[in-house]
UniProtKB/TrEMBL annotation:
Name of the molecule in the record: Hydrolase
Entry's Gene Ontology molecular function annotations: magnesium ion binding; phosphatase activity
Presence of the UniProt keyword Hydrolase in the record: yes
Source species: Streptomyces avermitilis (strain ATCC 31267 / DSM 46492 / JCM 5070 / NBRC 14893 / NCIMB 12804 / NRRL 8165 / MA-4680)
InterPro entries: HAD-like_sf, HAD-SF_hydro_IIB, HAD_sf, SPP-like_dom
PANTHER family per record: KANOSAMINE-6-PHOSPHATE PHOSPHATASE, PHOSPHOSERINE PHOSPHATASE
Record bears the keyword Hydrolase: yes
Keywords from the named record: Hydrolase
SUPFAM superfamilies: HAD-like
């Protein structure tokens, strides 16, 4: 289970609004943070940071990252790219972990941690059963080697072949996960975030967690209607989050798979897309 992290000396938390009226959920890699870090992208991200700092109290904003990356990976990237602030919460490892951030440091959210204690107990055995069954049925999955200790996500790659065959194979993966009472994330990999070309992430996780469940939990925790929340993403694994809120938007640099499956796409990219949408609704 996740542990507390002391306050970071080089990155502080966003100021906290006295009353939360709106929640903003953002994917991290290639949505909030552009990995290439061009001068224009850095300026856009800094402008977004300034907006979140200034508008948080005025609009009662609670802002968080919801990401497939581990907490240590997110914090490492935040440091390397010189981010000024950490958000109010980080839901990492595809929403299987939830951390709240304050001047006291980074703490596991108690209610979510209790929830995780009662789910996913047999994840490794069920994921291995799914892997073996799919292999015997001609679905080749390649284990990913970057699993963090204690992670409640077990990930594989499925390398694309041809569209018709891929559709059948991915549907079989979904049916197999459902039969075994596993959650599953299937999304086209994004090479801009360091993924291999021409493949899909296949992530097995406990059924009662994930990005959509994080949206539902946070909105319920802060008594905010999901219809009044925002969400931003760039890939297929963000779509369940985008469809769970009233204002879900893909950034303009999103993957083609995500663009084909979701109609609301910004004309702007990365942090610039987030800032433009928030300023347009919450000036």
């Amino acid at each position: 289970m996740p542990h507390s992290v002391p306050p970071l000396t080089d990155i502080g938390p966003l100021p906290t609004a006295s009353t939360v009226r709106t929640v903003v959920f953002s994917d991290f890699d290639e949505t909030y943070l552009a990995h290439s870090g061009t001068p224009e992208q850095v300026r856009s991200r800094q402008a977004l940071e300034n907006y979140l700092e200034d508008a948080g109290e005025r609009h009662g904003l609670l802002f968080g990252w919801v990401t497939g990356s581990s907490l240590s990976s997110v914090l490492g990237k935040a440091r390397r790219h010189g981010l000024r602030f950490l958000p109010h919460f980080i839901a990492c490892s595809l929403g299987t972990e939830l951390h709240v951030i304050s001047e006291a440091g980074i703490q596991p959210e108690p209610g979510w941690q209790r929830r995780m204690l009662t789910t996913g107990e047999h994840l490794e055995g069920l994921a291995e059963e799914a892997f073996r069954e799919l292999r015997t049925r001609g679905v080749p999955l390649v284990p990913q080697s970057c699993r963090a200790p204690g992670s409640r996500v077990i990930s594989y790659y499925y390398f694309a072949q041809d569209p018709e065959r891929d559709a059948r194979q991915l549907a079989l993966i979904r049916r197999t996960a459902d039969r075994l009472s596993l959650g599953v994330n299937l999304s086209r990999c994004n090479p801009a975030a360091g993924d291999p070309d021409d493949c899909y992430d296949v992530d097995f996780l406990p059924r009662d967690c994930g990005k959509r469940h994080i949206v539902e939990y946070i909105c319920r925790l802060y008594a905010v209607s999901e219809a009044d929340a925002f969400a931003f993403g760039d890939s297929g694994n963000d779509l369940e989050m985008l469809t769970a809120v009233g204002r879900g938007l893909l950034v303009g640099n999103c993957t083609e798979e995500a663009r084909a499956r979701y109609p609301q796409v910004s004309a702007r990219s990365h942090a610039d897309a987030i800032l433009s949408e928030l300023r347009g609704v919450l000036p």
